[in-house]
Protein backbone atom coordinates (compact mmCIF):
# COMPACT_ATOMS: atom_id res chain seq x y z
CA UNK A 1 0.00 0.00 0.00
CA UNK A 2 1.34 3.43 -0.95
CA UNK A 3 2.43 5.71 1.85
CA UNK A 4 0.24 8.83 2.10
CA UNK A 5 0.43 12.15 3.91
CA UNK A 6 -2.17 14.48 5.42
CA UNK A 7 -1.51 18.15 4.74
CA UNK A 8 -3.22 21.11 6.38
CA UNK A 9 -2.47 23.51 3.56
CA UNK A 10 -0.14 24.24 0.64
CA UNK A 11 0.38 27.86 -0.38
CA UNK A 12 2.85 30.32 -1.90
CA UNK A 13 3.97 33.18 0.33
CA UNK A 14 6.96 35.19 1.51
CA UNK A 15 9.23 33.72 4.17
CA UNK A 16 8.75 35.88 7.26
CA UNK A 17 11.36 34.43 9.62
CA UNK A 18 15.00 33.42 9.79
CA UNK A 19 17.92 33.77 7.40
CA UNK A 20 15.76 33.56 4.26
CA UNK A 21 13.33 36.29 5.26
CA UNK A 22 11.73 38.05 2.33
CA UNK A 23 12.13 35.21 -0.18
CA UNK A 24 9.23 33.55 -1.97
CA UNK A 25 8.63 29.96 -0.86
CA UNK A 26 6.03 27.27 -1.30
CA UNK A 27 4.80 26.35 2.18
CA UNK A 28 3.62 22.83 2.96
CA UNK A 29 2.00 22.66 6.41
CA UNK A 30 1.77 19.23 8.04
CA UNK A 31 -0.86 18.32 10.61
CA UNK A 32 0.92 16.95 13.68
CA UNK A 33 3.33 18.17 16.37
CA UNK A 34 5.10 16.50 19.27
CA UNK A 35 5.27 19.71 21.34
CA UNK A 36 2.72 22.13 22.79
CA UNK A 37 4.38 25.54 22.92
CA UNK A 38 2.50 28.21 24.83
CA UNK A 39 3.13 30.82 22.13
CA UNK A 40 2.09 28.67 19.17
CA UNK A 41 -0.31 30.60 16.94
CA UNK A 42 -0.41 28.19 13.99
CA UNK A 43 -3.55 26.29 13.04
CA UNK A 44 -1.99 23.02 11.91
CA UNK A 45 -4.42 20.42 13.27
CA UNK A 46 -6.09 18.13 10.79
CA UNK A 47 -9.70 19.11 9.99
CA UNK A 48 -12.14 19.09 7.08
CA UNK A 49 -9.93 21.54 5.16
CA UNK A 50 -6.95 19.14 5.27
CA UNK A 51 -6.16 16.92 2.30
CA UNK A 52 -4.47 13.55 1.91
CA UNK A 53 -1.94 12.96 -0.86
CA UNK A 54 -0.13 10.06 -2.43
CA UNK A 55 3.28 10.50 -4.05
CA UNK A 56 2.21 11.38 -7.58
CA UNK A 57 -0.54 13.86 -6.70
CA UNK A 58 1.70 15.47 -4.07
CA UNK A 59 4.42 15.93 -6.68
CA UNK A 60 1.99 17.53 -9.14
CA UNK A 61 0.75 19.90 -6.44
CA UNK A 62 4.27 21.05 -5.52
CA UNK A 63 5.50 21.23 -9.09
CA UNK A 64 2.71 23.69 -9.97
CA UNK A 65 4.34 26.46 -7.89
CA UNK A 66 7.04 28.66 -9.42
CA UNK A 67 8.72 29.12 -6.02
CA UNK A 68 12.35 27.98 -6.02
CA UNK A 69 12.11 26.62 -2.47
CA UNK A 70 9.65 24.30 -0.71
CA UNK A 71 9.31 24.95 3.02
CA UNK A 72 8.06 21.93 4.96
CA UNK A 73 6.57 23.33 8.14
CA UNK A 74 3.86 22.48 10.62
CA UNK A 75 3.24 21.39 13.19
CA UNK A 76 6.36 19.29 13.04
CA UNK A 77 7.13 17.98 9.53
CA UNK A 78 9.63 15.39 10.76
CA UNK A 79 6.71 13.40 12.15
CA UNK A 80 6.08 12.67 8.46
CA UNK A 81 9.70 11.62 7.82
CA UNK A 82 8.84 8.19 6.40
CA UNK A 83 6.64 9.71 3.69
CA UNK A 84 9.03 12.59 3.01
CA UNK A 85 12.02 10.26 2.70
CA UNK A 86 10.32 8.11 0.07
CA UNK A 87 8.82 11.09 -1.72
CA UNK A 88 12.01 13.14 -1.90
CA UNK A 89 14.12 10.15 -2.90
CA UNK A 90 11.86 9.67 -5.89
CA UNK A 91 10.92 13.23 -6.81
CA UNK A 92 13.42 15.81 -5.51
CA UNK A 93 15.42 16.08 -8.73
CA UNK A 94 12.25 16.40 -10.78
CA UNK A 95 10.89 19.10 -8.48
CA UNK A 96 13.96 21.25 -9.12
CA UNK A 97 13.39 23.13 -5.87
CA UNK A 98 15.44 23.53 -2.71
CA UNK A 99 14.05 21.72 0.32
CA UNK A 100 13.73 23.92 3.41
CA UNK A 101 12.84 22.18 6.67
CA UNK A 102 11.29 24.11 9.57
CA UNK A 103 11.59 21.95 12.67
CA UNK A 104 11.66 22.01 16.47
CA UNK A 105 14.89 20.02 16.52
CA UNK A 106 13.70 17.25 18.82
CA UNK A 107 13.47 14.37 16.34
CA UNK A 108 17.03 13.40 15.47
CA UNK A 109 16.19 9.87 14.31
CA UNK A 110 13.58 11.21 11.92
CA UNK A 111 15.97 13.85 10.59
CA UNK A 112 18.47 11.10 9.78
CA UNK A 113 15.92 9.58 7.41
CA UNK A 114 15.60 12.71 5.27
CA UNK A 115 18.91 14.55 5.71
CA UNK A 116 20.22 13.48 2.28
CA UNK A 117 17.31 15.27 0.60
CA UNK A 118 17.21 18.48 2.67
CA UNK A 119 19.10 21.64 1.70
CA UNK A 120 18.32 24.10 4.51
CA UNK A 121 17.30 23.47 8.13
CA UNK A 122 15.62 26.13 10.25
CA UNK A 123 15.62 24.80 13.81
CA UNK A 124 13.69 26.37 16.67
CA UNK A 125 15.31 26.45 20.09
CA UNK A 126 12.44 26.23 22.56
CA UNK A 127 13.07 28.09 25.81
CA UNK A 128 11.14 27.19 28.93
CA UNK A 129 10.74 30.90 29.72
CA UNK A 130 8.85 31.51 26.44
CA UNK A 131 7.50 28.14 25.27
CA UNK A 132 6.69 26.67 28.66
CA UNK A 133 8.39 23.39 27.75
CA UNK A 134 10.80 21.70 30.13
CA UNK A 135 13.82 20.09 28.51
CA UNK A 136 17.56 20.61 28.41
CA UNK A 137 19.25 22.21 25.40
CA UNK A 138 21.43 19.09 25.36
CA UNK A 139 18.41 17.65 23.52
CA UNK A 140 19.58 19.47 20.40
CA UNK A 141 23.08 17.95 20.31
CA UNK A 142 22.10 14.70 18.60
CA UNK A 143 19.93 16.63 16.14
CA UNK A 144 22.64 19.14 15.23
CA UNK A 145 25.27 16.43 14.79
CA UNK A 146 23.12 15.26 11.88
CA UNK A 147 21.90 18.67 10.72
CA UNK A 148 25.42 20.13 10.41
CA UNK A 149 25.84 18.17 7.18
CA UNK A 150 23.62 20.82 5.57
CA UNK A 151 23.00 24.55 5.93
CA UNK A 152 21.42 25.08 9.34
CA UNK A 153 20.51 28.00 11.58
CA UNK A 154 18.53 28.30 14.80
CA UNK A 155 15.68 30.61 15.76
CA UNK A 156 15.16 31.60 19.39
CA UNK A 157 11.77 32.99 20.37
CA UNK A 158 12.16 35.03 23.55
CA UNK A 159 10.21 37.38 25.79
CA UNK A 160 10.88 39.46 28.89
CA UNK A 161 11.17 36.28 31.00
CA UNK A 162 14.30 34.97 29.29
CA UNK A 163 16.96 33.85 31.77
CA UNK A 164 20.68 34.57 31.61
CA UNK A 165 21.28 30.82 31.88
CA UNK A 166 19.15 30.27 28.77
CA UNK A 167 21.11 32.90 26.86
CA UNK A 168 24.38 31.25 27.90
CA UNK A 169 23.20 27.77 26.87
CA UNK A 170 21.96 29.02 23.47
CA UNK A 171 25.26 30.72 22.77
CA UNK A 172 27.27 27.67 23.81
CA UNK A 173 25.17 25.43 21.57
CA UNK A 174 25.48 27.77 18.57
CA UNK A 175 29.21 28.18 19.11
CA UNK A 176 29.72 24.41 19.31
CA UNK A 177 28.09 23.88 15.90
CA UNK A 178 29.01 27.26 14.39
CA UNK A 179 25.45 28.12 13.44
CA UNK A 180 23.73 31.47 13.16
CA UNK A 181 21.31 32.43 15.94
CA UNK A 182 18.19 34.32 14.88
CA UNK A 183 16.61 36.12 17.84
CA UNK A 184 12.86 36.48 17.43
CA UNK A 185 10.77 38.50 19.93
CA UNK A 186 7.60 36.75 20.97
CA UNK A 187 4.56 38.35 19.37
CA UNK A 188 2.73 40.43 20.38
CA UNK A 189 5.68 42.13 22.02
CA UNK A 190 5.39 43.23 25.62
CA UNK A 191 6.00 46.92 26.33
CA UNK A 192 8.43 45.81 29.05
CA UNK A 193 10.60 43.80 26.64
CA UNK A 194 14.15 45.20 26.51
CA UNK A 195 14.98 43.95 23.02
CA UNK A 196 18.29 45.75 22.67
CA UNK A 197 19.44 44.73 26.13
CA UNK A 198 18.69 41.05 25.47
CA UNK A 199 20.39 41.22 22.08
CA UNK A 200 23.51 42.67 23.72
CA UNK A 201 23.60 39.80 26.22
CA UNK A 202 23.65 37.33 23.34
CA UNK A 203 26.14 39.33 21.29
CA UNK A 204 28.65 39.58 24.12
CA UNK A 205 28.82 35.78 24.20
CA UNK A 206 28.37 34.96 20.50
CA UNK A 207 28.84 37.28 17.54
CA UNK A 208 26.95 35.31 14.87
CA UNK A 209 23.56 36.48 16.06
CA UNK A 210 20.81 38.55 14.42
CA UNK A 211 17.58 40.11 15.64
CA UNK A 212 14.70 39.57 13.18
CA UNK A 213 11.03 40.05 14.01
CA UNK A 214 8.32 38.00 12.30
CA UNK A 215 7.98 40.08 9.14
CA UNK A 216 4.87 38.31 7.87
CA UNK A 217 2.91 39.47 10.92
CA UNK A 218 3.81 43.12 10.32
CA UNK A 219 2.94 42.85 6.62
CA UNK A 220 -0.19 40.74 7.17
CA UNK A 221 1.11 37.83 5.09
CA UNK A 222 0.32 34.16 5.61
Report on the structure:
The chain is of the alpha/beta class and 222 residues long. The chain has a single domain, classed as TIM Barrel (Alpha-Beta Barrel), CATH 3.20.20. The protein is built from eight helices and nine strands. Strands 3-1-2-4-5-6-7-8-9 form a nine-stranded mixed sheet. α7 links the parallel β8 and β9. α3 packs parallel to α5. The longest helix is centred in the middle third of the chain and has 15 residues. It is globular and about 50 Å long. The termini are far apart. The model has no long low-confidence stretch (mean pLDDT 92).
Please supply descriptive tags for the structure shown above.
222 residues, alpha/beta, TIM Barrel, 9-stranded mixed beta sheet, single chain, globular, 8 helices, 33% helix, 9 strands
* Class from secondary-structure proportions: alpha/beta
Tally of alpha and pi helices:
8
Number of domains: 1
Strand order of the largest sheet: 3-1-2-4-5-6-7-8-9
CATH architectural label: Alpha-Beta Barrel
Profile the largest sheet.
9 strands, mixed
Helicity range of the residues? 25-40%
Whole-number radius of gyration? Answer: 17 Å
CATH class: Alpha Beta
Separation of the first and last Cα atoms: 35 Å
CATH superfamily: Aldolase class I
What low-confidence regions span 5 or more consecutive residues with pLDDT below 50? none
Percent of residues in beta strands: 15-25%
How would the global form be characterised? globular
* Beta strand count: 9
User: In the CATH scheme, what's the topology name?
Assistant: TIM Barrel
What is the typical, i.e. mean, pLDDT? 92
Which series of helices and strands comes N to C? Answer: EEEHEHEHEHHEHEHEH
Amino acid sequence: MENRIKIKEIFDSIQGEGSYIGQKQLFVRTTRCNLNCSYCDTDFLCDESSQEYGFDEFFEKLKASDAATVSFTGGEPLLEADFLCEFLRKYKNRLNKKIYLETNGTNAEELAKVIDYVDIISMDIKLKSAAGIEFSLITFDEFLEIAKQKEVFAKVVFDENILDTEIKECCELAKKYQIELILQPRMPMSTSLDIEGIFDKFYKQYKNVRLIAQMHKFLNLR
